[in-house]
Amino acid sequence: MMLFCRNHVLAGLILVLAILLPAAHARAQNRDTQDRIDAIESRSDQAAEKRRLVREELNKADRLAWIVTGWFQKKGQVEAEIQRLETQKKTGAFNIYDTRQLDDQLQSLRNKLDGIMRLEGGLVIDGDPFNSFFMLQEALKQKNSEAMRLNDEYVRLTQELRALDQERDALLPRARDQEKTGLRFDQFKLGYLQEDLQMLQELVGNNELWILQSSIALGAMVPHMSRERALTLLTNEYILSVQSTPGKKADHRELAEVIKQYQAQSEAIKRQVREHIIPEKMREIEELRQQIKLREGGAGEIRGCWVVMVGSGNYPVIEIAANAQGDFEAIITRVGQLDFFKRGNRLFSVSRINDDTYDGTEYSFTADGRPVKIPLRLVISRDGKSIHYRADSIVTLRRCD
């Protein structure tokens, strides 16, 4: 009898263990998966912070270039006037001034040029002091060289973030156990394909944007810059080259040829993108859309009013709603501390990637107020009350009370 009871107890214990051990194992696996996701998100935040710092340095390089361009223009105008008067003096072809008045005018211009060379007493740019025109020249040369490296670093970090996001999203099905893995991958891939296609179409369709083989611009994935910015940079580089080469004189025809070559390179690259890359990208997107239509989709959970927790008060407020395509757009209802934005502006548009993640584009501005589009990822919290917002900066969105 005792043996019978013991056998039943043992059998019961085995049955309990048979039920509990796999469940415990599954929970341990889920915990391990979530730990891996948390670790990836931490690495993503670190990479995003590094990218933000890189963007700040690129903005500084851009601001310096615009400031130096202004001083180059001032210097060039005064030098041209001095040259004109000196030529008149040599040839005697003047009838407004006598020789003394002409000398006084020349001396006044030389004094003005000297003031420009001393930056009219000096200036401070992003915390760095400058007291001579030559210091500005050297700083510009260094910043242009540094900008090339920083742009490559920005691209590298963007690619690293994409890889981390893909790794995280691949783990989510195990952690959430909701949507099919195939749908997640398809939606994830579709978002990036659409983002790439939009970027490429905008680049090749805009005559004011140049695509360059040299990574000297501030673009994220394809090196490009505005035509005006390219002309400014090429002109500044040419002037620096002339000034640093003994005996060399500026030749507008040589500069025009340099600009012409860069423009031709841009058009050749655009033609290749337009005729080959874009059609292939569109084919991939259409095939992926057809696959997604066969799968079951989920409704978005980010609709409504959100507060953007940036600054220390007077927070911006946005309203997120679905558009006709099923994507989500955020419209600013209170500007708060956002620079350059206006009430009614679109802050971002995103599409749903999985049950808690949305990818898309932030429509922002550079430090000097120029419009810029930045890749954006939103991750909504499990309780649905906050959103982790990652573009070039990381902020938190909280539901309005």
Please name the defining characteristics of this protein:
401 residues; disordered N terminus; alpha+beta; 12 strands; 6 helices; two-stranded antiparallel sheet; eight-stranded antiparallel barrel
Could you explain how this protein is built, in words?
The protein is an alpha+beta fold. Helix content is 59%, strand content 17%. It contains six helices and twelve strands. The protein has an eight-stranded antiparallel barrel with strand order 5-6-7-8-9-10-11-12. A two-stranded antiparallel sheet has the order 1-2. Helix 4 packs antiparallel against helix 6. The longest helix has 90 residues. It is elongated. 19% of the residues are buried.
Secondary-structure map:
Blueprint: H1 2-91, H2 99-117, E1 123-125, E2 128-130, H3 133-176, H4 181-205, E3 209-211, E4 224-226, H5 227-243, H6 252-293, E5 304-309, E6 317-322, E7 328-334, E8 346-352, E9 357-365, E10 371-380, E11 386-390, E12 394-399
Antiparallel strand pairs: 1-2, 3-4, 5-6, 5-12, 6-7, 7-8, 8-9, 9-10, 10-11, 11-12
Helix pairs in contact: 1-2, 1-3, 3-4, 4-6
Short description:
It is built from six helices and twelve strands. It is an alpha+beta fold and 401 residues long. A hairpin with a 5-residue loop joins strand 9 and strand 10.
